[in-house]
Amino acid sequence: MVIAEAPATTKFSLDLDDEQLQLQKWVHEFARDVVRPAAHEWDEREETPWPILQEAAKVGMYGVQFMGHLQSDPAGLRLSIAIEELFWGDAGIGMALFGSALAMAAIAGNGTPQQIGEWAPQCYGTPEKVQLGAFCVSEPDAGSNVGAMKTRAVYDAVKDEWVLNGQKTWISNGGIADVHVVVASVDPTLGTRGQASFVVPPGTPGLRQGVKFKKHGIRASHTAEVYLDDVRVPGSCLLGGKEKLDAKLARARQGGRTGKQAARGTFEATRPAVGAMAVGIARAAYEWALDYAKERKQFGRPIIENQGISFMLANMRTEIDASRLLVWRAAWMARAGKKFEGGEGSQAKLKAGETAVWVTDRAIQIGGGIGYVREAPVERWHRDAKIMTIFEGTSEIQQLVIARAISGMRLP
């Protein structure tokens, strides 16, 4: 077989450019020097790590400008690179740092330029006054089934206000956020096509925190219920505006296409980011296991010389690299405006999430007793990894999305 020589220049490359490499190094150093040393403490405290958020804001790693820089990469990779490095440091603190991004993504994806300019910065605040954003979708009876949402938004034409009532659950930064973006049903008869997104400004009466959940993992990230009792917001807080909503509802009532759902568009945009989170966790566990296997001796030799251990590590590295490539492909496609015809965003999240759980489990096995105790970080990484197969669409939901995409059919 004759293999042709590669041309001197080619458009295809997997090499990161200088700016991406500098970003990777900068975020990695912050994760190594600031995040990782504090990870155990904040996991034990199960509280929002405000000092870390303030330090990140001070150095320019938490804020709307930073997120804008990550999103402006022509290749679409900066966000994935930064997330992987921060979650390599710690997933709980990483979620605290990126928890506001969902609210900002909902505002950017559904809002007018004026709304984006007004509300996106308020999801982060300033280095002097750090703020948080929260994206409120899930409900007790409407997790994966967003169409079962019961939270209602009713328009008061006299006051030009929307009145929101309902209960949200599993909300990152829920109740403590300065800006809440709430998805609510405007016309329940239309299912998901009758939903819209609303900004609830800071200090709005009627919005309150319910139960704060004590979680298996990502404990430094605040997760709670949110109750909305006659929450009144100005008409200008309807993302996209009423004229656009009325036109969408009219098309839906006539059986026409209405575009993306209020929640689905946000999740499609962020699934590659969740994949990057999972890759970061998996990489941390793999690197720990590799170092341990080189140092730990049994029967007079390092355990990595045992084929069972070395092959396990080889498979861990392969699965991590495969997951990262899927994440990068989906991130590049999203930035290039390419349609996920094969469910590429869901492929990235599905593969990376399952890989993180598997790799952290293998890392504990390699560590033996030391991998199982809380003095070693791998136990925490294993707990953190599991959420990657659950939130923003379970692995089963990702499989359904992929199956629908490749079949072209509305599978149950």
The CATH homology group name of the largest domain: Butyryl-CoA Dehydrogenase, subunit A, domain 3
Helix content: 40-55%
Number of helices: 13
Strand numbers in spatial order across the main sheet: 2-3-7-6
Low-confidence parts: none
Spatial shape: globular
Structural class of the secondary structure composition? alpha+beta
Q: Work out the count of structural domains.
A: 3
CATH class of the largest domain: Mainly Alpha
Taken in chain order, the helices and strands follow as HHHHHHEEEEEEEHHEEHHHHH
CATH topology of the largest domain: Butyryl-CoA Dehydrogenase, subunit A, domain 3
Characterize the biggest β-sheet: 4 strands, antiparallel
Separation, N- and C-terminal Cα atoms:
47 Å
The overall average pLDDT, rounded, is 92
Number of E-type strands: 9
**Percent range for β-strand residues:** 5-15%
Q: What's the gyration radius in Å?
A: 22 Å
Q: What CATH architecture of the largest domain do you see?
A: Up-down Bundle
